[in-house]
């Protein structure tokens, strides 16, 4: 079985977060649409009063490399600011090279792990 590019037999652990963590004021979840069709999504959840975590940023293949990820990430950061966050954090896996490039070029710096996500091996943070 493959999930978002990961071979689940190779150790990827599917995790289903509590949807309530992505509803204001705890967070928000956005769906990007093109011509009435969902082409991407992403969410933020507040970890504490000043720190928001970006989660589940995903784009369909046909819109990748066209700036949609940067737009979606920027909107998630703006929503985090509105919820009171002064810092955005996220985790990813080094095999997702395009994601790492997006985060770095959007001002995120690598940081020490802030969680125990078994699927992550890179952690990032950015001052908002």
List key phrases describing it.
128 residues; Aminopeptidase; 8 strands; two-stranded antiparallel ribbon; alpha+beta; 19% helix
Explain what this protein looks like in three dimensions.
Keywords: Acyltransferase, Transferase. InterPro entries: Acyl_CoA_acyltransferase, Bact_Acetyltransf, GNAT_dom. GO terms for molecular function: acyltransferase activity, transferring groups other than amino-acyl groups. This is GNAT family N-acetyltransferase. The structure is a single chain. With 128 residues, this protein is of the alpha+beta class. The protein has a single domain, classed as Aminopeptidase, CATH 3.40.630.30. It has helices spanning 68-82, 97-105, and strands at residues 2-3, 6-7, 27-34, 37-46, 51-59, 87-92, 109-110, 122-127. Strands 3-4-5-6-8-7 form a 6-stranded mixed sheet, with helices on one face. It has a two-stranded antiparallel sheet with strand order 1-2. Strand 1 and strand 2 form a beta hairpin. 20% of the residues are buried.
What's the helix and strand layout?
Blueprint: E1 2-3, E2 6-7, E3 27-34, E4 37-46, E5 51-59, H1 68-82, E6 87-92, H2 97-105, E7 109-110, E8 122-127
Parallel strand pairs: 5-6
Antiparallel strand pairs: 1-2, 3-4, 4-5, 6-8, 7-8
């Amino acid at each position: 079985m493959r999930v978002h590019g990961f071979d689940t037999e190779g150790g990827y652990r599917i995790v289903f977060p509590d949807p309530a963590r992505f509803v204001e004021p705890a967070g928000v979840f956005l769906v990007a649409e093109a011509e009435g069709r969902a082409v991407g999504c992403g969410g933020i959840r507040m970890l504490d009063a000043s720190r928001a975590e970006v989660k589940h940023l995903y784009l369909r293949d046909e819109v990748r490399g066209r700036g949609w990820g940067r737009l979606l990430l920027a909107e998630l950061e703006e929503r985090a600011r509105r919820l009171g966050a002064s810092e955005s954090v996220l985790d990813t896996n080094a095999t997702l090279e395009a994601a790492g490039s997006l985060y770095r070029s959007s001002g995120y710096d690598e940081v020490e792990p802030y969680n125990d996500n078994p699927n992550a091996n890179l952690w990032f943070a950015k001052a908002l």
